[in-house]
Records
---
Amino acid sequence: MKEKFDIIVIGAGLSSLMFLVKYVKKHPQQKILLLDKDHDKKNDQTFCVWQGPDIINLTEEFDIQPKKVWGKIMLDFQNRSIKKVMSPYNYKAYDGKKTLSSLLRSCKKNITYKNNCEVVQVKKNGLFYVITKDSSVYSSQTLVDSRHYHNTYDSKEMLYQAFYGSEVEMPTNTFDETTVTLMSFKENKNDIEFTYILPYTKKIALIETTFFAKNPNINDIKLKHEEKLKQYGKYTLLRSEEGILPMGNIKTDKEGSYLKIGISAGMIRPSSGYSMIRIANWINQIEDTELNQQNLSKFRFKSPWLLNWLDKQFLKVCFYRPEMAPELFMSLFSKAKIGSVVRFMADKPTINDVIAVIQALPKKIMIKYLIK
Ligand SMILES: Cc1cc2nc3c(=O)[nH]c(=O)nc-3n(C[C@H](O)[C@H](O)[C@H](O)COP(=O)(O)OP(=O)(O)OC[C@H]3O[C@@H](n4cnc5c(N)ncnc54)[C@H](O)[C@@H]3O)c2cc1C
């Protein structure tokens, strides 16, 4: 069977689905095919975002419901701890499986969706991209690709955020459900290591062991994580999640005859590994233009240069002096106003926020790396 489409999208992950939810509403006449290798969405991701004034409201824009909203965060290192009330801002967690399923439901009736459909090869036949799957041949002049490509990053000063997390249920009240532990640092000379805790209730929390490292090994991190969990005594394991996310500078894809989106298009923040807000901001900037082969450039993601520059300085410190990184983050959260930090983390800083962030960083570290 041969079928032609206006657009073929590879991968039904976060970037594709958020894009399609908005795009198909504006262009219901286009015939779109969405292909994903998996049968179903797994319960193995949690998407957290900063929300509040001047930041795109994901619940309203994408009709998705958060699992939990927190108004307070804390960080600690050695015997120092910082607690911040974030009002009018907050930190929201979206359940990965529910969010992706909800986004898929919102756009499914306007597209052709095929799961269990791994794209192994895309051939070019004249102006058309051609994908063959079993006895079906799909073709389109316009291709959107959200698969992850590791060679799209500059290898210089490349770090990865690697983490292993467990959602656990304790027999007794254990967690402060009002406060997210953003970074509880451990002393480590070679890598940046911290625990991240999302307390859903007094008894249930997602506890993650996270590393920013040059060459992380997820099995080693899992072992460290299991060791860490022993401090909680008896618990029930509800589910687990893991990831290795690039923290580096993307080689910008200005040309090319197809549209890359998602992680491999730089839609992941180099200094934090967050991408949901960045994806939403990108979609918001796309005008009502119809996506076709002639206007791909209007859809290409361009990362904000000032944020990129500042992220680069963060990454240099994390790369060359990982033992100094806890001080960098502690200083940022203790000295800058929380609104400036949150807007900075959510890709929406004003110039004053950027200045506030730079001023909050330890001078002796930053001066050295700003000019390196
Ligand atoms: C466990 C975890 C937690 C995270 N937490 C956060 C967070 O708290 N906040 C945040 O902002 N970001 C977070 N991220 C980072 C980021 O938001 C996600 O990785 C996000 O899913 C990236 O979107 P994407 O579209 O680029 O990739 P994906 O969502 O991974 O989508 C890619 C899709 O392509 C499909 N695919 C791959 N290869 C093929 C193929 N050959 N053929 C067909 N289909 C294919 C995959 O099945 C997948 O559905 C997290 C990531 C992970 C892994």
---
Amino acid sequence: MSKALALEITSKGYAVVEDYVGPDDLRMAQAFVFDAVTANGGEYIGFAGTQDLGDTFLASLPADPDFVALCRNIYESAIGQPAPDVGFYQILRCLSGGSAKKHSMRFHFDSYILTALIPITVPDHGNPGRLAIHPNTRDIRRTYLGNLIDKVLVDNRLSQALFNWAYHRGSKRVVRLSLKPGSLYLFWGYRSLHTNEPCDADAIRATALLHYADPHADSWIKQRLRRH
Ligand SMILES: O=C(O)CCC(=O)C(=O)O
Ligand SMILES: [Fe+2]
């Protein structure tokens, strides 16, 4: 299964495992998100790591042997080398309120090779908050410095304005995915320029992201700069 998924991610730009999360686990995570956004005055809130995720399935997912094996096998199928024995960089992003826009339409490359995304809640009205992916825009850079140069070229106003312009003109090169809560979406986050659409201020769009395998983890420069 992981071999087929890896091939699909490379050829299509992404792969989906439908209904990866069971209904009870999903409902509990949705209630968690709703409470967190409400407690934050209806505005954006993000959680890094697992420590504040209560007893939702998200708190134990990065230690789930099946999930870990899936990600490692996908990595190995595509990269052809043993998967590094590292954990995930995990975030739960809950978009809502006036601040939803600020956390949207910022095209970027992730620092990690594989991105696993599980939508928890999607807007039930207004902008659906799709995921936008330019499949495999770049290769894995040989050095951290090469990676850093890409990031600088992308993370500035002019580039962002161009990406947004192309996006709104309906560029065919970009995949626009309507997300289904509880399904698992996989893509090469390091290689693919991507972002999310916003949601309306009175809606909630929450996604859990588990990023796996930083190709530059051992870089001397990176360790000095202490960025991720
Ligand atoms: O929330 C999303 O749909 C994507 C977020 C993302 O790409 C990231 O946090 O790296
Ligand atoms: Fe990302």
